[in-house]
Amino acid sequence: MYTSVVPTPPDARNDTRFWDLLFLWISANFNILAFSTGSLGPAIFALGLKESLLVIFFTNLLSATLPAYFSTFGPRLGMRQMIVSRYSFGYYGNIIPSLLNLITFMGFLILNLILGGETLAAVSGYQAGHGGLSWDVGIAIVGVTFCGYKVLYTYERFAWIPVVMVYLVALGCGGKYLTNLPPVVPASSVTVLCFAASIAGYMISWATLASDYTIYLDPSASTHKVFGFAYAGFFIPNVICEMVGAAFAVSMNAPGNENWVNGYRVNNVGGLLDEVMRPAGGFGKFCIVLLALSCIAASSQCMYSFCISFQCIAPLFARIPRYIYSILAIAISIPVAMAGAHTYYTSLISFTGIIGYWAAAWATIVLVEHLVFRRTYTAYDTTAWDTPSALPTGLAALAAFAASFALIVPSMNQVWFQGPIGRVVGDVGFEVGFGLAGVLYAVFRSVEKCVCGDRKA
Protein backbone atom coordinates (compact mmCIF):
# COMPACT_ATOMS: atom_id res chain seq x y z
CA MET A 1 0.00 0.00 0.00
CA TYR A 2 1.29 3.45 -0.86
CA THR A 3 0.02 5.96 1.61
CA SER A 4 0.47 8.93 -0.70
CA VAL A 5 -2.47 7.98 -2.93
CA VAL A 6 -4.36 5.26 -1.04
CA PRO A 7 -7.65 6.65 0.36
CA THR A 8 -7.39 7.59 4.02
CA PRO A 9 -9.56 5.24 6.14
CA PRO A 10 -12.29 6.82 8.32
CA ASP A 11 -10.48 6.04 11.58
CA ALA A 12 -7.49 8.09 10.40
CA ARG A 13 -9.65 11.09 9.52
CA ASN A 14 -9.77 12.57 12.99
CA ASP A 15 -8.26 16.03 12.64
CA THR A 16 -10.59 18.73 13.97
CA ARG A 17 -8.22 21.70 13.63
CA PHE A 18 -10.15 23.43 10.88
CA TRP A 19 -8.34 26.70 11.52
CA ASP A 20 -5.25 25.02 10.10
CA LEU A 21 -7.05 24.69 6.76
CA LEU A 22 -7.68 28.43 6.78
CA PHE A 23 -4.05 29.25 7.57
CA LEU A 24 -2.80 26.72 5.02
CA TRP A 25 -4.49 28.53 2.17
CA ILE A 26 -3.79 32.00 3.55
CA SER A 27 -0.06 31.19 3.58
CA ALA A 28 -0.21 29.66 0.10
CA ASN A 29 -1.90 32.74 -1.37
CA PHE A 30 -0.44 35.59 0.69
CA ASN A 31 2.64 35.94 -1.47
CA ILE A 32 4.34 37.95 -4.16
CA LEU A 33 2.79 35.91 -7.01
CA ALA A 34 -0.70 37.13 -6.07
CA PHE A 35 0.71 40.68 -5.88
CA SER A 36 2.11 40.36 -9.40
CA THR A 37 -1.17 38.90 -10.69
CA GLY A 38 -3.03 41.95 -9.40
CA SER A 39 -0.50 44.26 -11.04
CA LEU A 40 -1.40 42.83 -14.47
CA GLY A 41 -4.56 44.96 -14.61
CA PRO A 42 -2.86 48.36 -14.74
CA ALA A 43 0.60 47.30 -15.96
CA ILE A 44 -0.36 45.03 -18.86
CA PHE A 45 -4.06 45.57 -19.62
CA ALA A 46 -3.99 49.35 -19.02
CA LEU A 47 -6.95 49.29 -16.63
CA GLY A 48 -7.56 52.03 -14.09
CA LEU A 49 -7.55 51.38 -10.36
CA LYS A 50 -11.34 51.22 -10.02
CA GLU A 51 -11.74 48.77 -12.88
CA SER A 52 -8.86 46.63 -11.60
CA LEU A 53 -10.24 46.45 -8.07
CA LEU A 54 -13.74 45.54 -9.27
CA VAL A 55 -12.43 42.78 -11.53
CA ILE A 56 -10.23 41.43 -8.73
CA PHE A 57 -13.05 41.39 -6.18
CA PHE A 58 -15.82 39.83 -8.25
CA THR A 59 -13.63 37.34 -10.14
CA ASN A 60 -12.20 36.01 -6.89
CA LEU A 61 -15.63 36.06 -5.25
CA LEU A 62 -16.93 33.62 -7.87
CA SER A 63 -13.88 31.53 -8.74
CA ALA A 64 -12.90 30.80 -5.11
CA THR A 65 -16.05 28.68 -4.76
CA LEU A 66 -14.56 25.87 -6.87
CA PRO A 67 -11.45 25.04 -4.79
CA ALA A 68 -13.42 25.62 -1.59
CA TYR A 69 -16.14 23.19 -2.67
CA PHE A 70 -13.66 20.53 -3.74
CA SER A 71 -12.02 20.85 -0.32
CA THR A 72 -15.17 19.27 1.14
CA PHE A 73 -14.49 16.01 -0.72
CA GLY A 74 -11.44 15.19 1.40
CA PRO A 75 -13.09 14.64 4.80
CA ARG A 76 -16.00 12.63 3.35
CA LEU A 77 -14.06 10.45 0.91
CA GLY A 78 -10.47 10.53 2.18
CA MET A 79 -9.25 10.66 -1.42
CA ARG A 80 -6.79 12.93 -3.20
CA GLN A 81 -8.29 15.22 -5.82
CA MET A 82 -6.83 13.35 -8.78
CA ILE A 83 -8.13 10.08 -7.31
CA VAL A 84 -11.63 11.61 -7.02
CA SER A 85 -11.25 12.56 -10.67
CA ARG A 86 -11.09 8.85 -11.58
CA TYR A 87 -14.77 8.55 -10.69
CA SER A 88 -15.54 10.73 -13.72
CA PHE A 89 -12.62 10.20 -16.10
CA GLY A 90 -12.06 6.52 -15.35
CA TYR A 91 -8.82 4.85 -14.34
CA TYR A 92 -6.99 5.27 -17.65
CA GLY A 93 -8.73 8.41 -18.86
CA ASN A 94 -7.66 10.18 -15.69
CA ILE A 95 -4.05 9.99 -16.82
CA ILE A 96 -4.76 13.07 -18.96
CA PRO A 97 -5.89 15.44 -16.15
CA SER A 98 -3.11 14.04 -13.93
CA LEU A 99 -0.52 14.95 -16.57
CA LEU A 100 -2.08 18.38 -17.05
CA ASN A 101 -1.94 18.84 -13.30
CA LEU A 102 1.77 18.01 -13.33
CA ILE A 103 2.36 20.67 -15.96
CA THR A 104 0.19 23.19 -14.11
CA PHE A 105 2.02 23.00 -10.82
CA MET A 106 5.41 22.76 -12.44
CA GLY A 107 4.47 26.03 -14.13
CA PHE A 108 3.41 27.62 -10.85
CA LEU A 109 6.63 26.43 -9.25
CA ILE A 110 8.64 28.07 -12.04
CA LEU A 111 6.70 31.35 -11.72
CA ASN A 112 7.26 31.40 -7.96
CA LEU A 113 10.96 30.72 -8.40
CA ILE A 114 11.28 33.49 -10.99
CA LEU A 115 9.61 35.97 -8.66
CA GLY A 116 11.64 34.84 -5.68
CA GLY A 117 14.85 35.06 -7.67
CA GLU A 118 14.04 38.47 -9.14
CA THR A 119 13.11 39.86 -5.75
CA LEU A 120 16.36 38.61 -4.23
CA ALA A 121 18.19 40.02 -7.24
CA ALA A 122 16.57 43.41 -6.61
CA VAL A 123 17.88 43.42 -3.04
CA SER A 124 21.37 42.47 -4.29
CA GLY A 125 21.33 45.13 -6.99
CA TYR A 126 21.45 42.70 -9.92
CA GLN A 127 19.26 42.76 -12.97
CA ALA A 128 16.59 40.13 -13.44
CA GLY A 129 17.97 37.06 -15.13
CA HIS A 130 21.59 38.04 -14.35
CA GLY A 131 21.66 37.78 -10.58
CA GLY A 132 20.69 34.13 -10.66
CA LEU A 133 18.25 32.33 -8.47
CA SER A 134 19.14 31.54 -4.89
CA TRP A 135 19.52 27.81 -4.49
CA ASP A 136 18.49 28.34 -0.87
CA VAL A 137 14.93 28.93 -2.08
CA GLY A 138 14.85 25.67 -4.03
CA ILE A 139 16.44 23.72 -1.19
CA ALA A 140 13.93 25.10 1.31
CA ILE A 141 11.01 24.09 -0.91
CA VAL A 142 12.34 20.56 -1.28
CA GLY A 143 13.01 20.37 2.45
CA VAL A 144 9.41 21.19 3.30
CA THR A 145 7.99 18.71 0.78
CA PHE A 146 10.28 15.95 2.06
CA CYS A 147 8.59 16.24 5.43
CA GLY A 148 5.11 15.65 4.06
CA TYR A 149 1.58 16.55 5.02
CA LYS A 150 1.91 17.26 8.75
CA VAL A 151 5.05 19.39 8.56
CA LEU A 152 3.59 21.24 5.59
CA TYR A 153 0.52 22.11 7.67
CA THR A 154 2.71 23.23 10.59
CA TYR A 155 4.84 25.43 8.35
CA GLU A 156 1.85 27.00 6.60
CA ARG A 157 0.21 27.75 9.96
CA PHE A 158 2.74 30.54 10.52
CA ALA A 159 4.20 31.36 7.09
CA TRP A 160 1.63 34.07 6.34
CA ILE A 161 2.50 36.24 9.38
CA PRO A 162 5.79 37.79 8.15
CA VAL A 163 4.28 38.37 4.70
CA VAL A 164 1.40 40.37 6.17
CA MET A 165 3.92 42.44 8.13
CA VAL A 166 5.94 43.10 4.97
CA TYR A 167 2.87 44.35 3.09
CA LEU A 168 2.04 46.65 6.01
CA VAL A 169 5.59 48.04 5.85
CA ALA A 170 5.23 48.52 2.08
CA LEU A 171 1.98 50.42 2.56
CA GLY A 172 3.60 52.47 5.30
CA CYS A 173 6.56 53.38 3.09
CA GLY A 174 4.70 53.91 -0.16
CA GLY A 175 1.14 54.67 0.89
CA LYS A 176 1.52 58.43 0.59
CA TYR A 177 2.70 58.02 -3.00
CA LEU A 178 -0.28 55.95 -4.11
CA THR A 179 -2.33 57.82 -6.69
CA ASN A 180 -5.49 56.96 -8.58
CA LEU A 181 -4.30 57.90 -12.05
CA PRO A 182 -6.95 57.75 -14.78
CA PRO A 183 -6.29 55.05 -17.41
CA VAL A 184 -4.70 56.13 -20.67
CA VAL A 185 -7.56 54.51 -22.63
CA PRO A 186 -11.06 53.62 -21.38
CA ALA A 187 -11.59 50.07 -20.19
CA SER A 188 -13.06 47.69 -22.76
CA SER A 189 -14.64 44.26 -22.52
CA VAL A 190 -11.50 42.81 -24.08
CA THR A 191 -9.11 44.14 -21.42
CA VAL A 192 -11.51 43.48 -18.54
CA LEU A 193 -12.18 39.87 -19.57
CA CYS A 194 -8.52 39.15 -20.30
CA PHE A 195 -7.56 40.39 -16.83
CA ALA A 196 -10.41 38.39 -15.29
CA ALA A 197 -9.21 35.27 -17.14
CA SER A 198 -5.74 35.62 -15.61
CA ILE A 199 -7.17 35.95 -12.10
CA ALA A 200 -9.66 33.12 -12.56
CA GLY A 201 -7.02 30.81 -14.02
CA TYR A 202 -4.81 31.41 -11.00
CA MET A 203 -7.66 30.67 -8.57
CA ILE A 204 -9.39 27.78 -10.34
CA SER A 205 -6.15 25.83 -10.60
CA TRP A 206 -6.25 25.27 -6.82
CA ALA A 207 -9.36 23.14 -7.35
CA THR A 208 -7.25 20.38 -8.89
CA LEU A 209 -5.48 19.75 -5.57
CA ALA A 210 -7.99 21.03 -2.99
CA SER A 211 -8.93 17.73 -1.34
CA ASP A 212 -5.25 16.72 -1.06
CA TYR A 213 -5.12 18.85 2.10
CA THR A 214 -8.38 17.79 3.75
CA ILE A 215 -8.10 13.99 3.71
CA TYR A 216 -7.33 13.83 7.43
CA LEU A 217 -10.13 16.14 8.57
CA ASP A 218 -13.00 14.70 10.61
CA PRO A 219 -15.71 13.43 8.19
CA SER A 220 -18.45 14.24 10.72
CA ALA A 221 -17.69 17.95 10.46
CA SER A 222 -20.14 20.22 8.70
CA THR A 223 -19.48 20.52 4.98
CA HIS A 224 -20.37 24.20 5.28
CA LYS A 225 -17.65 24.62 7.90
CA VAL A 226 -14.98 23.06 5.70
CA PHE A 227 -16.18 25.12 2.73
CA GLY A 228 -16.20 28.33 4.77
CA PHE A 229 -12.66 27.96 6.12
CA ALA A 230 -11.30 26.99 2.71
CA TYR A 231 -13.18 29.79 0.93
CA ALA A 232 -11.86 32.41 3.34
CA GLY A 233 -8.34 31.03 2.87
CA PHE A 234 -8.58 31.44 -0.89
CA PHE A 235 -10.58 34.65 -1.15
CA ILE A 236 -9.14 36.95 1.53
CA PRO A 237 -5.39 36.77 0.77
CA ASN A 238 -5.82 36.84 -3.00
CA VAL A 239 -8.08 39.88 -2.93
CA ILE A 240 -5.77 41.76 -0.56
CA CYS A 241 -2.53 40.95 -2.38
CA GLU A 242 -3.96 41.54 -5.84
CA MET A 243 -5.55 44.84 -4.84
CA VAL A 244 -2.29 46.05 -3.29
CA GLY A 245 -0.45 44.98 -6.44
CA ALA A 246 -2.93 46.87 -8.62
CA ALA A 247 -2.66 50.00 -6.46
CA PHE A 248 1.14 50.12 -6.68
CA ALA A 249 1.10 49.31 -10.41
CA VAL A 250 -1.30 52.20 -11.11
CA SER A 251 0.84 54.59 -9.07
CA MET A 252 4.10 53.71 -10.82
CA ASN A 253 3.48 56.30 -13.50
CA ALA A 254 2.57 59.10 -11.12
CA PRO A 255 4.87 62.14 -11.07
CA GLY A 256 7.64 61.63 -8.52
CA ASN A 257 7.55 57.83 -8.71
CA GLU A 258 10.12 57.47 -11.48
CA ASN A 259 12.28 55.26 -9.26
CA TRP A 260 9.37 52.81 -8.98
CA VAL A 261 9.20 52.58 -12.78
CA ASN A 262 12.96 51.99 -13.02
CA GLY A 263 12.84 49.25 -10.40
CA TYR A 264 9.92 47.62 -12.17
CA ARG A 265 11.65 47.70 -15.55
CA VAL A 266 14.78 46.05 -14.18
CA ASN A 267 13.36 43.44 -11.79
CA ASN A 268 9.57 43.45 -12.34
CA VAL A 269 7.49 43.54 -9.14
CA GLY A 270 10.51 42.61 -7.02
CA GLY A 271 12.28 45.75 -8.20
CA LEU A 272 9.11 47.81 -7.72
CA LEU A 273 8.74 46.71 -4.09
CA ASP A 274 12.46 47.23 -3.46
CA GLU A 275 12.08 50.86 -4.53
CA VAL A 276 8.87 51.29 -2.54
CA MET A 277 10.62 50.15 0.66
CA ARG A 278 13.90 51.90 0.01
CA PRO A 279 13.06 54.62 2.61
CA ALA A 280 13.14 51.90 5.29
CA GLY A 281 16.83 51.28 4.60
CA GLY A 282 18.29 48.00 5.80
CA PHE A 283 15.02 46.96 7.39
CA GLY A 284 13.33 47.43 4.02
CA LYS A 285 15.91 45.12 2.42
CA PHE A 286 15.20 42.55 5.12
CA CYS A 287 11.48 42.80 4.37
CA ILE A 288 12.13 42.25 0.66
CA VAL A 289 14.07 39.08 1.46
CA LEU A 290 11.13 37.85 3.56
CA LEU A 291 8.79 38.59 0.68
CA ALA A 292 11.02 36.70 -1.74
CA LEU A 293 10.95 33.71 0.58
CA SER A 294 7.15 33.85 0.69
CA CYS A 295 7.22 31.88 -2.55
CA ILE A 296 8.23 28.86 -0.44
CA ALA A 297 4.75 28.59 1.08
CA ALA A 298 2.98 28.36 -2.29
CA SER A 299 5.74 26.38 -3.98
CA SER A 300 5.79 23.75 -1.25
CA GLN A 301 2.14 22.97 -1.91
CA CYS A 302 2.69 23.00 -5.66
CA MET A 303 5.58 20.59 -5.21
CA TYR A 304 3.62 18.34 -2.85
CA SER A 305 0.67 18.01 -5.21
CA PHE A 306 3.02 17.69 -8.20
CA CYS A 307 4.41 14.56 -6.54
CA ILE A 308 0.93 13.26 -5.69
CA SER A 309 -0.26 13.79 -9.29
CA PHE A 310 2.74 11.84 -10.54
CA GLN A 311 1.82 8.96 -8.23
CA CYS A 312 -1.79 9.06 -9.44
CA ILE A 313 -0.85 8.33 -13.05
CA ALA A 314 -0.18 4.60 -12.64
CA PRO A 315 0.85 2.05 -9.97
CA LEU A 316 4.43 2.12 -11.28
CA PHE A 317 4.73 5.81 -10.39
CA ALA A 318 3.13 5.25 -6.99
CA ARG A 319 5.99 2.94 -6.03
CA ILE A 320 8.57 5.71 -6.46
CA PRO A 321 9.20 7.71 -3.24
CA ARG A 322 7.83 11.24 -3.25
CA TYR A 323 11.22 12.85 -2.60
CA ILE A 324 12.45 11.58 -5.99
CA TYR A 325 9.75 13.63 -7.70
CA SER A 326 10.66 16.65 -5.55
CA ILE A 327 14.27 16.48 -6.67
CA LEU A 328 13.18 16.02 -10.28
CA ALA A 329 10.87 19.04 -10.09
CA ILE A 330 13.57 21.30 -8.67
CA ALA A 331 16.13 20.03 -11.19
CA ILE A 332 13.76 21.03 -14.01
CA SER A 333 12.22 24.19 -12.58
CA ILE A 334 15.32 26.11 -11.46
CA PRO A 335 17.05 26.15 -14.88
CA VAL A 336 13.75 26.94 -16.63
CA ALA A 337 13.05 29.73 -14.14
CA MET A 338 16.47 31.24 -14.81
CA ALA A 339 15.85 31.13 -18.56
CA GLY A 340 12.30 32.49 -18.31
CA ALA A 341 13.02 35.46 -16.06
CA HIS A 342 13.24 37.83 -19.04
CA THR A 343 9.66 37.12 -20.18
CA TYR A 344 7.94 36.81 -16.82
CA TYR A 345 4.75 38.79 -17.51
CA THR A 346 4.16 37.21 -20.90
CA SER A 347 4.64 33.80 -19.28
CA LEU A 348 2.29 34.67 -16.40
CA ILE A 349 -0.55 35.84 -18.66
CA SER A 350 -0.27 32.92 -21.06
CA PHE A 351 0.13 30.33 -18.31
CA THR A 352 -2.76 31.43 -16.10
CA GLY A 353 -5.01 31.63 -19.14
CA ILE A 354 -4.16 28.16 -20.41
CA ILE A 355 -4.56 26.44 -17.04
CA GLY A 356 -7.88 28.22 -16.62
CA TYR A 357 -9.17 26.56 -19.79
CA TRP A 358 -8.43 22.97 -18.88
CA ALA A 359 -9.08 23.36 -15.14
CA ALA A 360 -12.52 24.89 -15.75
CA ALA A 361 -13.53 22.10 -18.12
CA TRP A 362 -12.20 19.43 -15.74
CA ALA A 363 -13.88 21.01 -12.70
CA THR A 364 -17.34 21.19 -14.24
CA ILE A 365 -17.14 17.53 -15.31
CA VAL A 366 -16.28 16.44 -11.76
CA LEU A 367 -19.02 18.73 -10.42
CA VAL A 368 -21.70 17.36 -12.76
CA GLU A 369 -20.72 13.80 -11.87
CA HIS A 370 -21.11 14.61 -8.18
CA LEU A 371 -24.19 16.85 -8.26
CA VAL A 372 -26.20 15.16 -11.03
CA PHE A 373 -25.21 11.51 -11.14
CA ARG A 374 -24.07 10.68 -7.60
CA ARG A 375 -25.68 13.43 -5.48
CA THR A 376 -24.16 12.14 -2.24
CA TYR A 377 -20.72 11.14 -0.99
CA THR A 378 -21.98 7.66 -0.11
CA ALA A 379 -22.42 6.96 -3.83
CA TYR A 380 -18.63 6.68 -4.18
CA ASP A 381 -17.18 3.22 -3.57
CA THR A 382 -13.80 4.25 -2.20
CA THR A 383 -12.56 0.65 -2.26
CA ALA A 384 -12.68 0.69 -6.07
CA TRP A 385 -10.29 3.62 -6.47
CA ASP A 386 -7.63 1.47 -8.20
CA THR A 387 -9.91 -1.03 -9.99
CA PRO A 388 -10.34 -0.01 -13.65
CA SER A 389 -13.25 -2.38 -14.27
CA ALA A 390 -15.23 -0.91 -11.35
CA LEU A 391 -14.68 2.74 -12.27
CA PRO A 392 -16.48 4.55 -15.10
CA THR A 393 -15.00 4.01 -18.55
CA GLY A 394 -14.14 7.71 -18.73
CA LEU A 395 -15.26 7.96 -22.35
CA ALA A 396 -17.99 10.48 -21.53
CA ALA A 397 -15.60 12.69 -19.57
CA LEU A 398 -12.88 12.55 -22.21
CA ALA A 399 -15.37 13.28 -25.01
CA ALA A 400 -16.87 16.25 -23.16
CA PHE A 401 -13.43 17.53 -22.19
CA ALA A 402 -12.09 17.33 -25.74
CA ALA A 403 -15.25 18.66 -27.41
CA SER A 404 -15.36 21.71 -25.13
CA PHE A 405 -12.12 22.93 -26.69
CA ALA A 406 -13.90 23.28 -30.02
CA LEU A 407 -15.45 26.43 -28.55
CA ILE A 408 -12.71 27.29 -26.05
CA VAL A 409 -10.13 27.84 -28.79
CA PRO A 410 -12.20 30.44 -30.73
CA SER A 411 -12.90 32.17 -27.39
CA MET A 412 -9.23 32.56 -26.44
CA ASN A 413 -7.42 35.89 -26.34
CA GLN A 414 -3.75 35.31 -25.58
CA VAL A 415 -0.51 37.01 -26.52
CA TRP A 416 0.31 34.14 -28.88
CA PHE A 417 -3.22 33.43 -30.21
CA GLN A 418 -6.53 35.26 -30.58
CA GLY A 419 -9.65 33.37 -31.58
CA PRO A 420 -12.40 35.12 -33.57
CA ILE A 421 -14.69 35.36 -30.52
CA GLY A 422 -11.94 36.29 -28.08
CA ARG A 423 -10.64 38.99 -30.40
CA VAL A 424 -14.00 40.78 -30.30
CA VAL A 425 -15.27 40.31 -26.74
CA GLY A 426 -12.13 39.35 -24.81
CA ASP A 427 -10.92 36.08 -23.32
CA VAL A 428 -13.99 34.05 -22.37
CA GLY A 429 -12.36 30.67 -22.86
CA PHE A 430 -12.64 29.46 -19.28
CA GLU A 431 -16.29 30.56 -18.97
CA VAL A 432 -17.17 28.81 -22.22
CA GLY A 433 -15.22 25.71 -21.21
CA PHE A 434 -16.91 25.55 -17.83
CA GLY A 435 -20.41 25.76 -19.27
CA LEU A 436 -19.98 23.66 -22.40
CA ALA A 437 -18.05 20.80 -20.78
CA GLY A 438 -20.73 20.49 -18.09
CA VAL A 439 -23.61 20.32 -20.57
CA LEU A 440 -21.81 17.88 -22.84
CA TYR A 441 -20.80 15.65 -19.95
CA ALA A 442 -24.38 15.44 -18.66
CA VAL A 443 -25.47 14.17 -22.08
CA PHE A 444 -22.51 11.88 -22.75
CA ARG A 445 -22.52 10.39 -19.24
CA SER A 446 -26.22 9.53 -19.55
CA VAL A 447 -25.46 7.69 -22.79
CA GLU A 448 -22.45 5.99 -21.22
CA LYS A 449 -24.55 4.71 -18.32
CA CYS A 450 -27.17 3.34 -20.72
CA VAL A 451 -24.60 1.57 -22.89
CA CYS A 452 -22.13 0.38 -20.25
CA GLY A 453 -24.48 0.11 -17.28
CA ASP A 454 -23.76 1.19 -13.72
CA ARG A 455 -20.36 0.04 -12.62
CA LYS A 456 -19.52 -0.74 -9.01
CA ALA A 457 -17.89 2.63 -8.27
Describe this structure in words.
The structure is a single chain. It contains 21 helices and no strands. It is an all-alpha fold and 457 residues long. It has a single domain, classed as Hydantoin permease (Orthogonal Bundle), CATH 1.10.4160. α1 runs parallel beside α12, α4 packs antiparallel against α12 and α19 runs antiparallel to α21. The longest helix has 31 residues. The protein is globular and about 70 Å long.
Largest sheet: number of strands, sense, barrel closure: none
CATH topology: Hydantoin permease
Q: What is the 3D form?
A: globular
- The topology string of helices and strands comes to HHHHHHHHHHHHHHHHHHHHH
Measured by DSSP, the beta-strand proportion falls in under 5%
Rg calc: 22 Å
Helix content: over 70%
Total helical segments: 21
Low-confidence segments, ≥5 residues, pLDDT <50?
128-136
For the record, the CATH architecture stands as Orthogonal Bundle
Mean pLDDT: 85
CATH class descriptor: Mainly Alpha
Helix and strand content put the structural class at: mainly alpha
Give me the count of strands. Answer: 0
Number of discrete domains: 1
Question: What is the H level of CATH, i.e. the homologous superfamily?
Answer: Hydantoin permease
Task: Report how far apart the termini are.
Answer: 20 Å
Subcellular location: Membrane
Protein name: Purine-cytosine permease fcyB
Main location: membrane
Family: Belongs to the purine-cytosine permease (2.A.39) family.
